[in-house]
Amino acid sequence: MEKPIQEEKRVFMTGNEVVAWGALAAQADIMYGYPITPQNEIMHYWTRLAPKYGKSFLQTEDELSAGFATIGGVLAGKRSFSATAGPGNTLFQEPISMAEMMRIPMVVAIQQRGGPSTATVIYSQQEVNMTTYGGNGEGLRIVYSTATHQELFDYTIKAFNNAWKYRFPAFILGDGYQAKMREPLIMYNPEEKGIEMVKPDVSLGKEGVPGKDRDPVYLRNAYSMEEELFEVLMPMIEEYNKVSPEIEEHFSLGCEDADLIIVSHGIVSRAAMAAEEELRKEGIKVGLFRPITLRPFPEGAIREICKSTPNILIVESANGQLARLVKEALFGLPINMQAIFKPGVGITSEEIIKFIKSKKTEEIIAK
Amino acid sequence: MSTTVMPNSWNINTKPHKFCPGCGHGHVLRALGEAIDDIDIQDRTVFGCDIGCSLLAWDFFNIDSIQTHHGRTTPVMVGIVRANPSLIGIAYMGDGGGYAIGAQHLVNSANRNDKILVVLVNNTNYGMTGGQMAPTTLPGQVTETTPYGRDALETGAPTQGPELVAAITGENAYVARGTVSNLRQLKKYFKKALENVQEGNGFSFVEVLATCPTNWRTNAKDTWKFLEENMASYFKVGEYKVPPTKREG
What is the pLDDT of residue A3? Predict the structure, then answer.
């Protein structure tokens, strides 16, 4: 069968279409989905592309089913994924917590919308808490917060690879703006670029008769005793902590000599980057730190930067969900923190520039 | 049916099993194990069990098995067989898992004609959590959450599962209600149900009436009486839907 993407191709498309193509490029086998805005077109494009390349799709009865069926697909040894948003992400926390406990490499694209509750279908950054630490667990997950369509493509491929490599559930955390707007990017076949695709393996339904040719596989997430759970959980947590430095990613700009560092993630970091460039032109020394992985959080990198520049401005379309991760990462350092929190609302570079030039940061930048 | 030899598909190393004395699960799993042996599908079967007492079957068979969440065994098995249609998925659950918290999965999987077997053990209560009212609790029956007896006007009448599933499935589905008081018949139902899945024909659903002396607080005699008289008079045993390929005579 023909490969979906043969050679590098420059395209102009919406973010949802990019995720569908990214999943194809990552050799995903099956998507289980349930309609919710603003992620619907990921399913729409997948269902149009899938039969051409021998891929499958199932529309489930709800997000619980989509999540648990995605787990089933992984157990059968297939690269399986889903996509959701907002209240759907809330329901997804149940299967995701099972995936965490059982080391099931499920992949989910999340296009954040407003919250709490039904709220808006447009845009937000309010699913950071839930995507990083939701469910009744310890947040043993990989969360990529993308800022451009190129990154949606790149990190969809990476999400599959790192989910299967490290066996933690992995997420592409986008938002309604990224989902719906069009932007140019270059699509490619990862193997042509020297990216080795991590092969999926079969958990249930292996070759041979269980009990005769081999032992049966027993997978569970329920334990009788406190100590029994502890013995299962602690090596998982230790392994997560051990591999975290390999997974952590961030982007920084102009932090070396900065008086003030803007910390933002996802699409807001593009406004922050534009503000940084604009202010630099005026001689105001501003830097930008952008965590790409929200989980594991690039703690070492941000601590290093903030040791020399203690003044930070956190900018996010939520009421401090990124700020909570940043504060945890910077615990113990003497930090002067300011913030622009606009839950569920987009943020422009002009707003950031205006804030930085206002009285609030006057002393810092006049230093 | 032999009473001394374990089915080949059972894992002898995990016996005696973990269920309470007098529990119906062991009988259900014996009939299921013998049906799996008879049609020789041990190497192709994947077994999923729910939360509740059914989770105690997580290491019961010489079959690849997974214990899932409460009510979520159906979608996990659906996900497995959609990704690998050569496998035969069995979703094993209780009445709470199938008719309450996982009812939407049962209804929609049945409606989609997913090629899986759902086995639902009906013992009229939530056993693992200490004997609360289930969707199948009989009118007047005393449980921890109906201490004065179930008032059907207040909490509804017992769910008629096979009747519901038969009403919403296509003609290729197999739907039956068996009982642990007739294991020969139950095994026959399981065989037909598994063959229906094996042949890629359709969704199969078998509810089994089972005993729970621990939570019913009954002795041996009263346990059997409750099963054969109280339950069987409300829940009619028999085949509710038999696909054309499986009809006899």
Answer: 81
